[in-house]
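Let's study a protein:

===
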Amino acid sequence: MAMARTVMTLSEDMIVEILLRLPVKILARFRERQSTPKKILLSTPSMLGFIEIDVPFWDGSAVRDLFFRFKQRGRAVKMVGSCNGLVCVTLYNHKDFYIWNPSTGAQRKLPDPEVSPDGGTYKYGFGYDSSSGDYKVLVASYGARNPGHFLGSEGKLFSLKRNSWIRIQVLDNPYESYYSAGILCNGALHWEVVLDEPYKCQMIIAFNLAEEKFINVPYPSIPIEEYDEEEEVIDICFDGLRNLGGRLCFTCYRPNFVELLVMMEYGVQQSWE
């Protein structure tokens, strides 16, 4: 007597758990055919990026050029940020944003954020919000300034889960920033900002991805000038923020050595050491 065949239907959550345990090369095969795993790979935020690669930065054999289909002739590509194996880039016009997994080739073009600084500057960033299990992209535009007159600012935040941009309140920008892309650390994107006077570093601003708002982060108490044994002025050059093992870090160049300042307890000014 023929045995009846039982077909089990797996839930999408269970399929995700299975896919997370498969090698990248096997996952890439699903992209070549129409299938349920392919749909999950392209639509589930947790599946777009889940690979951590630990390679010594001095290992030249690990560095290679990557081909990406969204590159356009005459359009420079800027790095917005990277997180959990995902890379977010924008083209020069700041209208075309992409989230891309170089390992699997999966990519998603984001809607136009529709912000324009009209000759001003941008700050942007990309990161993972662990509280909601969501990837988010921030873009803030600051209009051009005439002497004594600031022409306004605008901010937009994209949620991969919502698949849309929302308007957010940004800080008034009486400052300049060396770098446009924010440094992801402790669930927030960070920028070092300075006054109009050269090298007068004043503060760190951050965007909390979970609370979706800007905050101030304490700046290290370090003089911008020191004196040598002959009372000659020694200039100290700050080279921006970094993420060092999950802690916010400052690179400080002195005449004969480089000093790293690390915030040991996030948000505590006295913990810089």
